[in-house]
Design brief:
451 residues, alpha/beta, eight-stranded mixed β-sheet, eight-stranded parallel β-sheet, 13 helices, 16 strands
Length: 451
């Protein structure tokens, strides 16, 4: 047994609900990486690890493309849009090898850890060699990502992605060749093989496999039908949905319905689906996603960086969808910025404040991602049975001084994260990874070989 004594911690309300409440002098006892007791209003005992500051559940990153981190600070000259940025992204993808990707992903995952993330859903589609031929080692790129996550200590849901077309009715381009499989059945076979390989080599609570459909642009309707009937029911499923108006227009022209409508047509709108972005939806789409209990993964910093637009997060939540947060292309890796940006986008779009309460933002940053993940997720409160995944916030920094604990989403940043614990292990202190050192140094080294 290990124990942590928290100066202040976010625990469940005394009313018996799971609404977050800040309590003083909280002692957490843990076993095998899970919390076994929570006692408030107490003093530390000999041997306790003291956590000074405000202890929150660690955040969950529900959407990541690790290699996109290459593009931060390198794609901001001149004008353009998502489609111009995509060509730059393809250039970065073309340079990856298993060795380079493991090195880069280790650094990116380390950056996530020191900023307060304990879990990540990696939307992975760089499967093969640049010409589309498989690597001699089966699952070379996927295993590289799994090793990177283990090195960084982050929980990884590896979303193996189906990517068959370059657009509706368009074959894969040469730049996309390494993303694709020969057909949907080959992908299903490879997915099954990958699940066996991961399960045989990594702890299930640390690395596990899910599935993703890149988009309705990349997966033809006849293949959606196969996925709907053949995909194993015990894994999460993700998709980029209605990120761009052009995607909606192409889908309407080809199939007579929106991307959400197309998924609904084949029974793919369910509670296990995570729809990423969902920026340009019709009122009917919002109702369908809500009634299905879909998780909608918003990535506010990326959607702003790529000029995607502001998605209807409040309307989706009110309709019944669960909101989760992701960092996508990693223009920023900071759970507090994503929380704040979600609400700020709502304010800019509506002209109203308080569209999401601080408690709702904390939920979106933590257990909102639970169905998106195949590994455990913390929060929104520290409670018995939950994983011991913690992030500690300095309440007296230049940014946070005077803030009420439950309103930190409107003042804190990743720079205020002083300690991060994953599965009961202290993995980061003051921006330094316990195993890997300063992520900036590790990132700089990994980026030397990538343009």
């Amino acid at each position: 047994m290990n124990a942590f004594w928290c100066e202040t911690a976010i625990i469940a309300s005394k009313s018996g609900s799971r609404e977050p409440e800040a309590a003083s002098g909280v002692r957490l006892e843990t076993h095998d990486g899970r919390i076994t007791s929570v006692t408030a209003g107490t003093q530390p005992q000999p041997g306790d690890r003291r956590l000074e500051g405000i202890v929150f559940p660690a955040a969950a990153n529900a959407h990541s493309h690790a290699f996109h981190r290459v593009l931060r600070g390198r794609t901001h000259e001149g004008r353009g849009d998502f489609w111009v940025w995509r060509e730059q992204m393809y250039t970065s993808a073309s340079e990856l090898t298993p060795e380079k990707y493991e090195k880069l992903a280790t650094a990116v995952f380390a950056e996530m850890v020191v900023t307060g993330f304990s879990s990540v859903a990696e939307f992975h589609y760089v499967h093969h060699q640049p010409d589309g031929a498989p690597y001699p080692e089966p699952h070379a790129m996927e295993l590289a990502l799994a090793r990177a996550a283990m090195a960084a200590g982050i929980r990884l849901t590896l979303l193996d992605t189906l990517y068959l077309a370059g657009g509706i009715g368009t074959p894969l381009s040469p730049e996309q060749a390494r993303f694709g499989d020969s057909d949907v059945h080959a992908w299903l076979d490879r997915l099954a093989s990958l699940r066996a390989a991961i399960a045989g080599s990594f702890p299930a609570d640390r690395v596990s496999v899910g599935a993703a459909l890149h988009s309705v642009r990349a997966v033809p309707e006849e293949d959606l039908k196969v996925v709907a009937t053949k995909l194993p029911a015990d894994i999460p499923l993700h998709i980029h949905l209605s990120e761009q108006p052009a995607e909606n227009e192409a889908c309407l022209e080809a199939y007579g319905t929106t991307p959400a409508g197309l998924l609904g047509r084949h029974g793919l709108l369910t509670g296990r689906l995570s729809a990423v972005h969902s920026t340009h939806l019709t009122p009917e789409d919002i109702i369908s996603l809500g009634e299905a209990g879909t998780t909608v993964v918003m990535c506010p910093s990326t959607e702003a960086d790529l000029a995607d637009g502001i998605g209807p997060a409040r309307e989706l939540s009110d309709a019944g969808a669960t909101i989760a947060l992701g960092t996508d292309q990693h223009a920023v890796i900071d759970p507090w910025t994503e929380m704040r940006s979600l609400e700020h986008g709502e304010r800019l779009g509506s002209g109203q404040r308080g569209r999401f309460s601080p408690q709702e933002l904390l939920r979106a940053a933590t257990e909102g991602a639970a169905r998106s993940m195949a590994t455990p997720v913390a929060g929104p409160v520290l409670e018995v049975g939950g994983v011991c995944d913690l992030m500690v916030i300095d309440p007296a920094s230049t940014r946070t001084a005077g803030s009420r604990p439950l309103q930190m989403a409107f003042s804190a940043t990743a720079s205020d994260v002083t300690e991060v614990v994953i599965a009961g292990e202290l993995l980061a202190s003051n921006g330094v990874h316990a195993r890997l050192g300063k992520p900036g140094t590790v990132l700089a080294e990994a980026l030397k070989d990538l343009s």
